[in-house]
Amino acid sequence: MDIKTIKALASIVHDMNLSSIEVEEGDLKIKIHGPQTAERSTVATKNPQASLPAYKSGVAEVSDKGLDFNAIYTLKAPMVGVFYAAENENAKPFVTVGSKVKKGDVLCIIEAMKLMNEITTDRDGEIVDICVSNGDIVEFGQTLFKIF
């Protein structure tokens, strides 16, 4: 389950004034409480002690290894252009959520003024979110990837 989905669920609870919503996907169980029952929601895994405030303070995935939200790095677009996740439409994407990356690995291509610019990572880590879709037009400074 990605961060966008969790944020969408929290938004539904808030906008529709629901008391709570609960979703399970694999080992991940998410229960979001509306404002009338609690001022926060929890995200839990197999480890019941791994829960954290979600709706008011931001939402993110939690795995068994834990996640330090301060350690998440956002890779931003260095230019305006068209985002491509792979070399061509028949190739598999450079990275997917969960991919391990090393400094210098190509994460995507941004086409700007008919030039294909490979965008690389400047650190080692794991891709925890891809914030744009293949073919999207991206702006300078727009978040492309979140790396932990």
Describe the structure.
By secondary structure, this protein is mainly beta. It folds into 2 domains: 3-70, no CATH class; 72-147, OB fold (Dihydrolipoamide Acetyltransferase, E2P) (Beta Barrel). It has 1 helix and 11 strands. Strand 1 (20-25) and strand 2 form a beta hairpin. The radius of gyration is 17 Å and the shape is elongated.
Task: Name the features.
9% helix, 148 residues, mainly beta, 2 domains, 34% strand
Short description:
With 148 residues, the protein is mainly β. The protein has 1 helix and 11 strands. Helices cover 9% and strands 34% of the residues.
Spatial gap, N to C terminus: 16 Å
Order of helices and strands: HEEEEEEEEEEE
Secondary-structure class: mainly beta
Strand arrangement in the largest pleated sheet? 4-11-9-6
Q: Number of DSSP strands?
A: 11
How many structural domains does the protein architecture include?
A: 2
So what's the overall shape? elongated
Report the radius of gyration as a whole number of Å: 17 Å
Classify the helix fraction into a percent range.
Answer: under 10%
Number of helices: 1
Quaternary structure state of the chains depicted: single chain
Q: Report the biggest beta sheet as strand number plus sense, adding barrel if it closes.
A: 4 strands, antiparallel
Strand content: 25-35%
List unreliable stretches of 5+ residues.
Answer: 37-64
